Amino acid sequence: MERRLAWGAALWLLRPAYVALELVVAAATTGDYRLTRDTVSDLGALTCDPRFCSPWHDLMNATFVGTGLLLGAGAVLLAPRLGRVVTVLLVVAGTSSAAVGLAPVDQHPGLHFLAAAPLFVAQPLALCLLGVRLRREHPRIAGAVLATGVVTAVAALGFVLGAPGAGVLERVALWPVIFALAAVGSRGARASTGPARPGPAGVRGTMGS
Questions:
Q1: 204 band by pLDDT with thresholds 50, 70 and 90
Q2: Best label site of 15, 21, 28, 201, fewest CB within 10 Å?
């Protein structure tokens, strides 16, 4: 069990590299691409927009796929700590992310948006449920996870509804989740190596002691 949890945590701890890779691809984009205005999906477009061109689109799409697989696989490995519902939601989110990378927005726009939609729903919901699950044993991390879920849900809603600042809203909906889950995975792996202690009734099997 300890090895399984450690592997799951390791996969989630790799995911923050996504942010660095996205910024690298954005920096390589020519023209008038703006992080505050333009979407992450634009960085994966194979063809050039009149305003900008993303020559490293292959790296961006591979990053979508890779981080999605890391999310889903990590959730499966950490399932004993996460619970069934949270695990399923995060597997759905990971599958959604991977599918986005396989359907670039300029090549398959309808399929792309259909693939992306579950990500913006499943991730915030998973964080909110996970925050509630952890609140008795780990109130501090639970509060941070729950707050992240709420903030990312609001940002995702604004992004989907087309509010101004699409680039900011999309990144607020996505980036904090990566770091919140990395922290949760790390906590769970550390707890699994320590002495086992029974938790309060109804919350055994959450993130350790």
A1: very low
A2: 201
Distance of alpha carbon 61 from alpha carbon 22, whole angstroms: 10
Residue type, 57: H
pTM of the entire predicted model: 0.88
Q: Which residues pair with 31 in a beta bridge?
A: 52
Amino acid at position 6, single letter:
A
Counting every residue written for the chain, the total comes to: 209
Q: Which residues pair with 30 in a beta bridge?
A: 53
- CB-based contact 131:143 (threshold 8 Å): yes
> Which tens digits make up the pLDDT trace of 95-124?
999 999 999 999 999 999 999 999 999 999
CA–CA separation, 71 vs 36, rounded Å? 25
Residue type at 135? R
3 state SS for the chain: CHHHHHHHHHHHHHCCHHHHHHHHHHHHCEECCCCCCCCCHHHHCCCCCCCEECCCHHHHHHHHHHHHHHHHHHHHHCHHHHCHHHHHHHHHHHHHHHHHHHCCCCCCHHHHHHHHHHHHHHHHHHHHHHHHHHCCCCHHHHHHHHHHHHHHHHHHHHHHCCCCCHHHHHHHHHHHHHHHHHHHHHHHHHHHCCCCCCCCCCCCCCCCC
